[in-house]
Structure formats: C-alpha cells, structure tokens
Amino acid sequence: MKKVSVLLIGLLVAIMPLIVFAEKDANITKAEFVKKVVKARNLELEEVLQSSFEDVTNPDYINYIETAFKAGIISGSNKKFNPEDVLTKEQAIVILVKAFGEKGKVNSVTKDTLDNQLKFIDKNKITPWAQNYIAYALESGIVKESESFLHPKMLVTEELADKMIQQARNVFEKKYMRDGMSAADMLVMVNEKTMKYKTYKQKGNMNMKMSVKVEGLPEEVYKEDLELQNLLKQGMNMVVNMELQVQNPDKSYVKESIEYDNEELGNQNMEIFIDGSYMYSKTNDMEKWIKQDIGGLMKQIKSLYGSNEPYNMSSFNKQQLEAYKDYAVFGEDVKIDGKDYYVIKIDLDKETYRKLYKEITDKILDSMIELQRQNQDKNSSEQGQMSIDMLKQIVKQITEQMEVEVSYKFYINKETKNYEMVDLVQDVYMPMDNLLKMLMQTMEEGKEKEQLKNVKITMNSHFDGRFKLYDFNGEVSFPEIKPEDIADSIQIGNIPVQEDIQQDINKDSF
Questions:
Q1: Backbone phi, then psi, for 423, in 5-degree steps?
Q2: How far apart are CA 288 and CA 488, in angstroms?
Q3: What is the 3-state secondary structure (H, E, C) of 442-480?
Q4: Close Cβ partners of 125 (under 8 Å, ≥ 6 residues apart)
Q5: Which of 191-200, 329-338, 390-399, 474-483 is predicted least confidently?
Q6: Pairing between strand 236-247 and 177-178?
Q7: Total-model pTM
Q8: Range from 105-109, 228-232, 258-262, 298-302 carrying the lowest mean pLDDT
Q9: CA 203 distance to own-chain centroid
Q10: 335: exposed, middle or buried (Cβ count in 10 Å: 0-12, 13-18, 19+)
Q11: Cα 57 from Cα 61, distance rounded (Å)
C-alpha cells in the first residue's frame, strides 16, 4: 500500500504543472512563439509576400517566420512548419537557444555536461535531438529550472512563454551583446563596412611549426637522405611575414618573406601583384616578373573570399560568414595602445572547417579546370585533364583525412567599428597514408616504389599569428611593371615557365 501511495504522489507532482497552467492560460502556437522571439531579439523583419513554408499563409506571421528561418532560429520539414501546432517546452528551449545562445557551442556539448545538467527524474522523456540544446540552455542560464521534473513534453502557455523569453533575453543582453548587437550581428556589420573601403593595408606574421612522423621507411633510404633525417628529428619551423596593400575592386600587392630556423634552407621572399585579370609574381632569385592571365580564376576567388585574394584577413565570404555567425561570441573587452576594443572569438570545430574548406577548394578547382580548357591546345588537353583530375583527387584525400582546429580573435575598435587586429591559431593533424598510395599509383615499378610500399606518414602543424589592418582609405602604392620587366615565358601544359627554367628542364631530360 505504501508503494502505491508513493507512486500516486509522484504522479501528482509530475502532472501538477500541467493542471495549473491549463487552468491559468491557453497554450501558445509555434507561430505566435516565433513572433514573440523575433520581436524580443529585435531582428530586422524580412519583407516577403510568400513564406518559404507551404503551410505558412497567415499574413500576421509570414514575415516573422521568414525572418526566424533566414536567421537559423527555426527549420521545417518537407517545406512545412506546422505553424498552428501547440508548442512543447523542449521545442521552445531549442528555439530560444538558436535565437539567444551560441548555436555553435551546442555541437560541442560533452557527455559530462549532459550528465551534470540533465538530472531530471523525467530526463528519459527528452527527445534525443533536443538534449544538447537543453543542456546548453541550462548551463548558460538561458533557461532556469529548479524542479526535479523538466516536463519536456508539456505544452507551453503564453505566460510561461513570456517568462522563458524574458529569461533568455536577460542572459543574452548581459553575456552576448555589445552596443545593442550580438557578436554575430556585429560581425556582419563590421564585415560589410570593411568591404566598402576603397583602400586599406594589412601586415602581420605567422609562426609555423611542423613535425612529421614516418613509419616503415627502409633504413638505407633514411641514412642516405640528410634532409629527411633533419626533418624527422627537428621538424620544420618558420616565420612568414606579410605586407598587403589593396585597392578595390581589382588591385592588390603582397610582399611575403619566409624565414626558416634551418640556415641551410635560407630565406625566401616573394612579391605578388594583381592588376585586374593579370597576376605578376617574382621571387628573390628572379630578376623579372612572371605574368599570368588569371581572370577567370580570380573572379571565382573574389566571389569566394569577398576580396582579391585569400591573403585578405579583413572580410569574409558569404559561406564563411554564415558558418562563423553561429560560432561568434564576445570575449572580454581589452585596451591596447590606449585604444578600446571589443573582442569577437570564433572557434571552429573540425566538421565545420572541413565543410568550408571543401566548398572553397571544389569551386577553385572547377575554375582551374575551366581556365586550363581555355588556355591549353588540343594536343595537351588529355594530359592536362589528367593532371587536374589527379589534383582533385589529392585535394579530396586531404579534405577527408585532415583534422583542423581553428580559432580567430577579431579586435574591433569601439570608436571606429573597424577590424584593426586579427589573431589566428590553427592546428592541423593529417595522416598521409591514402594520399601516398594514390601518388604511388602514378610511379613506375621499381626500387623507389617498392621502398614506399609500407611507409606511413603523419604530419602535425601548428600556426599562430597576428595581422593588423590599418590606413583605411589611405594612399597605396603598387609596382610599376614595364614590358621589359616581364620575363619571356614558355607554356608547359598551361603553366608559364621562365626560359632559363625551361632550359634546365631540357638539359635534365637527356
């Protein structure tokens, strides 16, 4: 009898909130809740006549639901949103996290966080896809719960909806806003502002440390190759220094120097000048410039990077911005050299980086193929296509196997709202086994191929650096390149090569 009484009491405790709220207020629909959230979030409304969802036809809700959809706050299924469905508590929490939280952090919720936050008696009632959102919401304070039961399937009333939205908004304004903007909103605003400048400059340096692990290499190969011995023992460390000047829409000039810690490698310097559809390049061991027509390729790069070239650290392309918005959070404000800065941090997980990298490289490679088709003659087309296909396979292997963690810190001047500094930290782990096997398929049978048969290679790299952006709309200067400053070049496939290099190639071929 005692056990039955305990069970009845537990049941009453569990259903009491449903009874109380049912008496006090009517349940709220998904459409009405989304409208309240969009208003509380102060989002600029999308002015549309037709929704992306087939079942959203009420003009009172179309713009609000479309705004939430474009902002990534809601999603649907089979082009339907079911706006008149009543809202459950777990659904409301997910929407609140997407509107007022750090969506990127939801994917990185750990098992410990789940165990610590989801201690409710009815935690088994939580739908699996909502667990990370609810754990994050509780940990961040977006949602407050003091009861032993969560009631995830409870229907939300208007009164409860207002309380939940107010709690989420309070936390959002305190933790995630500066000057009335979220980190994502400020990222978009500053990005748009930066892209409107006619000119700007950038300088910085990147420290790189690389280590390589090789297994299965025959002893005789290792003993004969001193450079390989040094690489495996010491790795390779270098500092890349860079200066960039940009004049939108189609001029940029970068000077880059690479300093190795190994004196035998020496230092390398490179200059690249992009003027419209032409790229001029020169290294420290070249007297003249190499000129290339890269109009098609640069058009694609510009559409991807939002700038002339990937050296630019001051603006994002559309794909980057959409992904980064979900991961952007404010750090502690700082003062540097007497200036006050907001700090926006972005930590990208491996899957997000891999997806972005694949999208960009696929489009660049497609542009390279098109450029090759335009430049090469009929006799070399088959060979050229083979080389591009091989390149695409190499990039695919790299993309699928590499593990990359990237962290950005953007320092935004509180007064000017400009990016003035960017810190970048990147760690790369890359097993090269499959890539090596693929390259071996192109080798002729022989001793060298046999020696590589059981080799396994793993590469680890660490990058860290700071880039400074300055002199917005200031004066810029570019090289003056005359016809006599340009090297005579010869086509090998579709790659222009200096005449003296071609002579070396010819000598080695006999």
A1: -100, 135
A2: 9
A3: CCCCCHHHHHCCCCEEEEEEEEEEEEEEECCCCCCCCCC
A4: 150, 151, 152, 153
A5: 390-399
A6: unpaired
A7: 0.69
A8: 298-302
A9: 22
A10: exposed
A11: 8
